């Protein structure tokens, strides 16, 4: 078959790759642009760059998604995004497991006091709120980039009806061109660009949010 | 052989369809225009994409080999299928070996092209379409009528009725209710199916990355839950570098739905790694030729392989807007279907497709990769005609008429004189338009054409008199 294709190609004219990439937009305030674009597609933007705002942001996410628990993969997510917490029941926080969950019994106040609960992967299908850290954000389109790698999976950000993404301000890129230029050669098996909640326009081209993926998407920006 | 004319008559007489088409194209302005106009360097992006595609097609073997190498490095497998039948056979064999009884599918026009669902059903394997539009179409036992919105020809009410009848949904006119029903039923299929089959929007040669664009999350689930993922791609879908994706995604998404970005863009690099928590254990990329290398061999027609299947040409086409997608009788509809159907098969197999166009040029104008569709259609008509001329006697009435027409069109004096005569005849024979003239020689030609009433004075006469006044 390759031979046939080679043969078909042979007669044709040869064309060079264009030398320069077209310009992609830059923004004086990328955070503001990111917020606008995310909100335009129905996502919720929360500024958690100052630590005292973080607790409030988390509380809002829990309230809006009607949840009392957050599930996530990998143990470092909360620490990495500067969320300090104390555990009410440290033994139950199952170290060494791959899926973690916090149970919020009280109003979220800083410092957060958490009840931890051992979680199972079989819980995935009934989890109401999951969280993950974004590898990148893109201001141009309000996109967050979810990277699958060691100790992470694809489903946690897809199956639950609500998903929370932590995005570090230094990972916020201006535009799509910067994203694809700075994308590391794939270590993991999947990289997903997520822009707002799941939606469809298949019925009379009417936009409806929440089909197979999460119907609510929250992004908390951290510093 | 696919004939269109009978379908067209049927489509024009179908009042429900006409209403649905009107709602889709006349009553609601497509958001594309706005999405495109806010990009200041849109033309530059188009040129870039066109050149990248032309370059890639001119070196297709190299890029396909590089793609294969990278996919293999990541633990995936690559299957080369010269025909649709070969691709189908591979999927059937693999399903049998793995004991797969049900497949969840993402939207893939290529799978329509190779009639995969029919083959799966015959082999007692249940294909479940998971894109909402495709799901509706599958329930109705129909074919998609639009590349991007497969159920565009159906109204909300028709879909609701279908769900009531086939799925036992309580009657409702609420779109949310319809979607909740589909979501619930499909969730079950997602969690139990062992094989996911999807199409491919782009495949990056330098990294072996398969890119699939979607809004619903159904592709994400189809490539994450089942233990086997099969991606079907036409050989023309490969692009050289990751960075080109930035341009192609911008062009594709804005052209297709008028969004800046879809909810999900899945970039997949083979099966799950051993230290990842989920994802398919086996990943197969099927490279399908199915007539594409034949198109590639023609330097001019090759441009048609640049198509990124955004569907923009369908939305602006006056013919498509009037007859809908099913009338084309082929996998691909609209201007792109008129172009690709005879190219992928032959002009003998699809003799009318190239003629299902007014050549107005709107398709070329909106095409994000600048394919000169009208020129390609003209070339196809020429090809069709020369094949017919070879068969039939060279002297035909049509040829004589065309020669006479050419002579008149070449001479301003003759044209003006004949115009005058025609208007005189009109004055004598009929006041209110001539409708369908009962001229026996032209009866076949007149069957689908109306002759409008002629104005009392020609443009030239009006023009010269207005010159005199001023």
Describe the structure.
The complex is a heterodimer of chains A (223) and B (470). Chain A is α/β, with parallel strands linked by helices and 223 residues long. Chain A has a single domain (28-222), classed as NagB/RpiA/CoA transferase-like (Rossmann fold, 3-Layer(aba) Sandwich), CATH 3.40.50.10420. Chain A contains five helices and 14 strands. The radius of gyration of chain A is 21 Å and the shape is globular. In chain B, α4 (42-58) packs across α13 (242-257). By secondary structure, chain B is α/β, with parallel strands linked by helices. Chain B has helices spanning 5-13, 15-27, 32-37, 42-58, 60-73, 84-98, 109-113, 116-122, 132-140, 156-167, 175-192, 218-222, 242-257, 292-296, 312-316, 318-323, 334-344, 362-366, 373-391, 397-410, 412-429, 443-446, 459-469; strands spanning 77-81, 102-105, 126-129, 195-198, 202-204, 209-214, 228-234, 238-239, 264-268, 282-288. Chain B is built from 23 helices and ten strands. At the A-B interface, α1, α5, β11 and β12 of A face α4, α5, α9, α11 and α12 of B.
């Amino acid at each position: 078959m390759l031979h046939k294709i080679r043969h078909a190609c042979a007669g044709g004219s040869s064309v060079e790759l264009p030398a320069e990439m077209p310009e992609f937009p830059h923004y004086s305030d990328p955070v503001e642009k990111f917020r606008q674009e995310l909100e335009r597609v129905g996502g919720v933007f929360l500024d958690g760059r100052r630590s005292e705002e973080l607790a409030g942001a988390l509380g809002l996410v829990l309230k809006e998604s009607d949840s009392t628990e957050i599930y996530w993969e990998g143990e470092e997510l909360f620490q990495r995004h500067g969320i300090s917490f104390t555990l009410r029941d440290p033994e139950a926080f199952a170290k060494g497991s791959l899926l973690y969950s916090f149970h919020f019994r009280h109003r979220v106040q800083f410092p957060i006091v958490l009840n931890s609960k051992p979680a199972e992967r079989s819980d995935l299908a009934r989890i109401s709120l999951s969280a993950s850290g974004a590898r990148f954000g893109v201001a141009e389109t309000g996109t967050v980039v979810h990277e699958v790698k060691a100790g992470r999976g694809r489903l946690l950000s897809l199956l639950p009806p609500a998903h929370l993404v932590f995005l570090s301000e230094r990972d916020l890129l201006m535009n799509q061109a910067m994203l694809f230029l700075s994308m590391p050669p794939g270590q993991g098996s999947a990289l997903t660009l997520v822009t707002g909640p799941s939606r469809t326009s298949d019925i009379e081209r009417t936009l409806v949010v929440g089909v197979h993926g999460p119907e609510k998407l929250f992004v908390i920006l951290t510093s | 052989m696919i004939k269109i004319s009978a379908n067209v008559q049927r489509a024009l007489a179908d009042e429900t369809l006409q209403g649905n088409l009107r709602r889709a194209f006349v009553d609601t302005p497509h958001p594309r225009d706005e999405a495109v106009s806010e990009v200041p360097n849109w033309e530059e992006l188009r040129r870039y994409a066109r050149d990248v595609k032309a370059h890639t097609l001119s070196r297709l073997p190299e890029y396909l080999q590089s793609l294969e190498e990278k996919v293999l490095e990541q633990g995936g497998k690559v299957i080369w299928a010269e025909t649709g039948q070969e691709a189908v056979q591979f999927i059937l064999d693999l399903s049998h070996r793995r004991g797969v009884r049900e497949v969840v599918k993402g939207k893939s026009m290529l799978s329509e092209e190779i009639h995969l669902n029919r083959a799966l059903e015959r082999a007692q394997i249940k294909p479940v379409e998971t894109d909402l539009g495709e799901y509706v179409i599958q329930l109705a036992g129909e074919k998609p009528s639009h590349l991007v919105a497969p159920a565009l020809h159906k109204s909300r009410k028709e879909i609701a009725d279908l769900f009531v009848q086939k799925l036992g949904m309580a009657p409702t006119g609420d779109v949310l209710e319809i979607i909740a029903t589909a979501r619930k039923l499909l969730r079950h299929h997602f969690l139990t199916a062992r094989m996911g089959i999807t199409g491919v929007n782009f495949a990056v040669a330098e990294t072996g990355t398969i890119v699939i664009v979607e809004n619903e999350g159904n592709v994400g689930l189809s490539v994450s839950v089942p233990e086997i993922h099969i991606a079907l791609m036409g050989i023309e879908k490969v692009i050289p570098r990751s960075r080109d994706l930035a341009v192609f995604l911008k062009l594709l998404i804005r052209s297709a739905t008028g969004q800046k970005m879809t909810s999900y863009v899945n970039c997949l690099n083979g099966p799950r790694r051993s230290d990842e928590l989920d994802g398919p254990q086996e990943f197969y990329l099927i490279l399908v030729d199915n007539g594409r290398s034949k198109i590639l061999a023609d330097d001019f027609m090759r441009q048609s392989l640049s198509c990124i299947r955004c569907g923009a040409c369908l939305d602006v086409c006056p013919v498509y807007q009037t007859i809908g997608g099913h009338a084309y009788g082929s996998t691909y509809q609209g201007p792109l279907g008129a172009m690709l159907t005879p190219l992928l098969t032959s002009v003998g197999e699809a003799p009318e497709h190239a003629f299902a166009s007014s050549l107005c040029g709107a398709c070329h104008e909106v095409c994000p990769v600048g394919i000169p569709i009208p020129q390609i259609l003209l070339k196809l008509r020429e090809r069709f005609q020369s094949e017919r001329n070879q068969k039939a006697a060279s002297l035909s009435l049509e040829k004589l008429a065309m020669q006479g027409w050419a002579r008149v069109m070449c001479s301003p004096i003759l044209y003006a004189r004949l115009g005058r005569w025609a208007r005189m005849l009109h004055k004598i024979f009929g006041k209110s338009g001539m409708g369908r003239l009962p001229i026996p020689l032209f009866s076949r030609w007149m069957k689908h054409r109306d002759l409008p009433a002629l104005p009392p004075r020609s443009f030239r006469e009006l023009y010269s008199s207005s010159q005199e006044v001023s």
